[in-house]
Amino acid sequence: xxxxxxxxxxxxxxxxxxxxxxxxxxxxxxxxxxxxxxxxxxxxxxxxxxxxxxxxxxxxxxxxxxxxxxxxxxxxxxxxxxxxxxxxxxxxxxxxxxxxxxxxxxxxxxxxxxxxxxxxxxxxxxxxxxxxxxxxxxxxxxxxxxxxxxxxxxxxxxxxxxxxxxxxxxxxxxxxxxxxxxxxxxxxxxxxxxxxxxxxxxxxxxxxxxxxxxxxxxxxxxxxxxxxxxxxxxxxxxxxxxxxxxxxxxxxxxxxxxxxxxxxxxxxxxxxxxxxxxxxxxxxxx
Length: 286
Hints:
Elements: H1 2-10, H2 12-31, H3 35-65, H4 78-88, H5 99-110, H6 118-129, H7 131-156, H8 161-164, H9 167-178, H10 183-193, H11 198-239, H12 255-285
Helix pairs in contact: 1-3, 2-3, 2-5, 3-4, 6-11, 7-9, 7-11, 11-12
């Protein structure tokens, strides 16, 4: 039975049905924002939301049932935990009595569409992975804004108090300039005060606007590549029977999939060997 359920939840038609239900739920939520539609078809929209919730409960039960006697393995995947929470939250006492909380719970079910699209999962995972390095870049950018803000306050405090009257205004002006918004206007006003102040503005744009933004883009792209590789490895593990699916597909997997599994194993072995060689080289030098 668990193998049959696993084949059902892994089928393309099953994913399509879930996607259609999520879209229908989103449409119903959107129609509720129109007072005229809500007044005439409010009961129908509530019925649609309840039907969608029932289908989601059945879907969740089938996916958990695909694990057979080991249902706890369902919760090893973070996306599965997310699905379970956003569906179970509708049954918490007090949620249905509050229209605001009920709408938020229904809205959370629409976000489940992320799980159905691997590329979207990779995008969100890449953004999440980029948070720690982005925090360091944000600190460096803040320090740069403070330093340039103090210099700008020193140069233009008396003549341009609206933009450079204190460190707060100066940093806000520089932050706007990061997007190159009104940059020529700020530079022209500064050059009216000090003709050589173009050095100040041009150096800030080169350092902050170009270098910092390009570094940010590089960090995000690198995190996206890491997330894509993690998603690929997770898919390979699932095909090998170590992920959310309980069906071992190796017996009937296409040759291309088997080659992908072997390539992943070789990549991991190569990484371990290169790491070990670097450690041996470092110990020999010491």
